[in-house]
Design a protein that fits this description.
This protein is an alpha+beta fold and 352 residues long. The chain contains ten helices and 13 strands.
């Protein structure tokens, strides 16, 4: 994720907690540059489904659907460098800027490809008229969302934060332009679902090879399912078709269910982190772990046969243990000894 914080977090940090791992909270930020505000998705580890394209696209999709009245008719221009960010240009008739930050894309082409498939899907569905994705040149890594993350981190280091709701309050107090959205609660309830976009998009779209060398991708509703690819802004533009089958209008990918925290992780939080939380948050952040359920033993029906078997088993338990039967090795050794004794007797008789 873009950022990750731990709670409880105390500015007067107790010494023992320095070597421990408190509860984790990931932050995914989306900046609307037209209104200079940032929406931050707070992902507690209880509802975290892992890093990858599914989480990125799900949060971007949630934001764009929540702001559909602003994004549906306005062209989007995305800039990405180890992140996905959305921007706009003055050349477009309506000024609308969004910055979606900072999920790593650079490690593989799959994440880039799935993002391209998702943008092609939005244009094919008519959710956006024009979308442009630009990958920045290596070395340019800072975006406007880093400003809002910096404001949050500065406030976070100065406050005693002990729960997920206090993380949200700290985020919103850091600046009037910072807004926090909970992806889920601390007890595992999902509020913003994560979808299996990778499986869903592969049904209708194909991947583009060699996209690491390209820096600009353009999608238009005039040619849905196709993308115009350029290496640089002044390079030759080539068209590539992504679509294999037309996606259905109402079809959506399946929701992914978070696995939640393991029993070992819950026990660790209860034993090692609970004492550093505020008194009123201990049962929420580090609740006690119930004992593991043992398998119940069902009673067998008592019949005459079962009683007789139990009696014989009791008798056998009281008797001494029978010696084990001779195995093949012992028998072989016995036969050799017997043959040796017989040969000695025969030789002794001959001597006499």
């Amino acid at each position: 994720m873009a950022q990750q914080v731990h709670y409880p977090s105390n500015p007067l940090q107790p010494g023992p907690v320095y070597f421990k791992t408190p509860r984790k909270c990931a932050v995914f930020g989306i900046t609307d540059e037209a209104f200079r505000r940032q929406t931050n998705y707070l992902i507690d580890e209880a509802v975290h489904v892992g890093k990858g394209c599914n989480t990125i696209i799900s949060y971007i999709h949630h934001y764009l659907e929540a702001n559909q009245s602003q994004t549906s008719h306005n062209p989007l221009v995305l800039h990405a460098d180890n992140c996905a960010s959305v921007d706009n240009d003055n050349a477009f008739p309506v000024l609308f800027k969004v910055a979606v930050v900072h999920q790593p894309f650079a490690s593989g082409q799959d994440k880039n490809n799935f993002m391209l498939m998702y943008l092609a899907w939005r244009v094919a569905r008519g959710l956006n008229a024009n979308v442009e994705l630009n990958f920045m040149i290596a070395g340019h890594t800072k975006f406007v969302p880093d400003l809002f993350f910096g404001l949050f981190k500065r406030r976070y280091r100065r406050e005693f934060v002990s729960s997920l709701h206090e993380v949200k309050e700290c985020m919103e107090r850091s600046s009037i332009l910072n807004k926090a959205v909970l992806v889920g609660s601390q007890d595992g309830e999902v509020l913003v679902p994560t979808y299996d976009w990778s499986t869903f998009l592969c049904r209708y779209f194909s991947k583009i090879k060699g996209i690491k060398s390209a820096h600009q991708f353009t999608f238009t509703n005039e040619t849905p399912g196709s993308v115009m690819v350029r290496q640089f802004c002044n390079s030759y533009e080539s068209a590539t078709s992504l679509i294999q089958y037309s996606p259905l209008n109402d079809e959506m990918p399946e929701k992914l269910t978070p696995l939640g925290m393991t029993r070992e992780r819950k026990q660790y939080l209860y034993k090692e982190i609970r004492e550093f939380c505020k008194e009123e948050h201990r049962d929420i952040v580090c609740p006690p772990v119930p004992p593991a359920q043992s398998h119940k033993i069902t009673a067998r029906p008592t019949t005459e046969c079962s009683v007789a078997k139990d009696k014989t088993s009791i008798k056998k338990r009281g008797q001494p243990r029978e010696p084990r039967k001779n195995n093949v090795t012992v028998l072989f050794l016995k036969s050799l000894i017997e043959d040796f004794i017989i040969t000695l007797i025969i030789r002794f008789c001959k001597i006499l």
